[in-house]
Write a structure and sequence with these properties.
The complex is a heterodimer of chains A (83) and B (345). Chain A has 83 residues and is an all-alpha fold. Chain A has four helices and no strands. Chain A starts with a helix and ends in a 5-residue tail after the last helix. In chain B, α10 links the parallel β7 and β8. Classes of the chains: A mainly alpha (83), B alpha/beta (345).
Chain lengths: 83, 345
């Protein structure tokens, strides 16, 4: 999850945020980290670029991007298996 | 038409600094002196902003602050190049990622109207918002739109700006077209050592225009006029003389001319001819050694003019009397010509 936090910070250019500032279960949007709809699109690109995961259903986004932990769980469950 | 305030980010720190000791640049490029944006713009907004957006938003914010305005009736910007850095980023990613996995931020922020839009978002301003992209007439088009709306009583106040940036990539491309000097003349000697090409420039200049006086206005904008691709210098002279006549003036009624020489021999011939043939008795100063050449550089000239009229001080000149009436004449690559007439308040 530490790597994922670093990737989120880099992808969203969260200059003053350190990985340790983001709680594992802290909400990413609105009242939590304060992300918005453009950030959601950036996170979809992040999943594709870094983990080769394409979000099949846009409605899934709300639950997948709830927190770093939910993102990490989704990545673990959906990451293509390497031979 | 009153200019209640003017503010900008340019290769010069301030009008006072120009009077004392203007910033001098070597090479063939002048770059903006940028403030600490974190002090001026919400950090949550700043993280997505490229350099030109930060420059534009910061300049607009300062202009509004100086004018004491919270909400202008219109936000109108002019830009020739738009948000180049984001455009380059978006296009590079498109090539690198084979047109897939494109990040949305650079695309969203790359449009030419981003600066005007970001100012509106910052102010939560739902009023008229327009951006003009018209090469060397971009800034003039924005200004003329504001003037027209004010004259037609559609609005009474407008925040008008001209923004353009130069990036390493655009500088390299424009250098290939032969626009910039290949020698190392530098900005201090740019106009004294005629040569081929000029120095690249950039800037974000904003003006608070109002239909009524505030009692502390910087200057009064009497007229703006543009003309396109004149056939020769004689036609340029005719346009300027006619402009003065329409304003019931003769050249000797002007206290100061601000003209757009940029050090390129082929560019400056018209200014030399006008100095001899039209305003030979009028003190004249140049401005592109201070800001460089770019399509919306006339915005810098206007910023300079309003400060001259506001303070009575002229960079590089000690006028016999305080200038009360200033004429600006500028052209961009012999194609887009503009004339501004301003008076002191």
């Amino acid at each position: 999850m530490a790597d994922l936090k670093k990737q989120i910070i880099e992808q969203l250019n969260l200059k003053d945020v350190k990985p340790e500032d983001i709680g594992d279960d802290q909400p990413l949007f609105v009242e939590g980290l304060g992300l918005d709809s453009i950030d959601a699109l950036e996170l979809i690109v992040l999943l594709q670029q870094e983990y080769k995961i394409k979000l099949a259903n846009a409605e899934e986004g709300q639950s997948v991007f709830r927190s770093v932990r939910t993102m990490a769980q989704y990545i673990t469950e959906h990451q293509p298996k390497t031979v | 038409m009153y200019i209640q305030a003017a503010a900008g980010i340019s290769p010069q720190r301030s009008f006072e600094a120009i009077l004392m000791q203007p910033e001098c640049y070597t090479g063939n490029r002048l770059t903006c002196c940028e403030p600490d944006y974190a002090q001026l713009i919400d950090p949550r907004m700043i993280r997505r902003m490229s350099r030109i957006i930060k420059m534009g938003v910061a300049a607009a914010k300062e202009c509004l602050q100086k004018a004491g305005w919270e909400m202008p009736d219109a936000i109108i910007t002019g830009t020739a190049y738009g948000c180049l850095a984001d455009t380059e980023l978006f296009l590079s990613k498109m090539v690198e990622n084979k047109e897939e996995l494109l990040t949305p931020t650079a695309f969203i922020q790359s449009t030419h109207n981003t600066v005007g839009a970001q100012i509106a978002l910052l102010l939560k301003c739902h009023n008229y918002n327009n951006t003009f992209v018209h090469r060397g007439f971009s800034f003039e088009s924005a200004l003329l739109d504001a003037v027209t709306l004010i004259k037609e009583e559609e609005i009474s106040t407008a925040l008008v700006g001209g923004v353009d940036e130069i990036t390493p990539v655009s500088h390299a491309i424009l250098s290939r077209f032969g626009l910039y000097r290949k020698d190392d003349t530098g900005s201090a000697a740019l106009l004294d050592v005629p040569g081929k090409g000029t120095m690249a420039g950039e800037g974000a200049l904003f003006f608070a225009l109002s239909d009524h006086p505030s009692g502390n206005d910087y200057a009064k904008l009497d007229n703006v006029y543009t003309f396109y691709k004149p056939a020769d210098i004689a036609e340029v002279k005719d346009h300027i003389v006619s402009f003065l006549q329409r304003n019931e003036l003769q050249a000797q009624d002007i206290d100061l001319v601000i003209s757009g020489e940029n050090g390129d021999v082929s560019n400056d011939a018209v200014y030399t001819a006008l100095k001899i043939g039209v305003w030979n008795t009028v003190p004249a100063v140049s401005f592109k050694q201070l800001c460089g050449e770019y399509p919306t550089a006339a915005g810098f000239a206007l910023w300079l003019a309003v400060h001259i009229l506001h303070t009575g001080k002229v960079p590089g000149l000690t006028p016999a009397t305080r200038p009360r009436r200033v004429l600006i004449y500028n052209h961009y690559q012999h194609i887009h010509h503009s004339i501004y007439l301003l008076t002191a308040c």
